[in-house]
């Protein structure tokens, strides 16, 4: 499972936006979002660059955790 530090997440809409952006690239990816900790965990076949690009496209800052 890959883990990323994401800043700017504050609500359920953020969770949905990030989850949908990642699952648009891989439908079966498992996405866990920890709003309080500012963390996103992804299990699947995507590489880190693809995941980070998808999160950035939604308007969030992201870095490996």
UniProtKB/TrEMBL annotation:
In terms of Pfam families, this protein maps to: HMA
Metal-binding is among the record's keywords: yes
Keyword Zinc in the entry? The reply is no
Q: Name one GO molecular function term.
A: metal ion binding
Q: Which residues form the HMA domain?
A: 1-63
Q: Enumerate the UniProt keywords alphabetically.
A: Metal-binding
Name of the protein in its database record: Copper chaperone
- Lineage summary: Bacteria, Pseudomonadati, Pseudomonadota, Gammaproteobacteria, Pseudomonadales
């Amino acid at each position: 499972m890959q883990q990323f530090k994401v800043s700017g997440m504050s609500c359920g809409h953020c969770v949905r936006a990030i989850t949908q952006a990642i699952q648009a690239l891989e439908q079966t990816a498992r996405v866990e979002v920890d709003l309080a900790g500012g963390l996103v965990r992804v299990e699947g076949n995507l590489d880190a660059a693809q995941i980070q690009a998808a999160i950035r496209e939604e308007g969030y800052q992201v870095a490996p955790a």
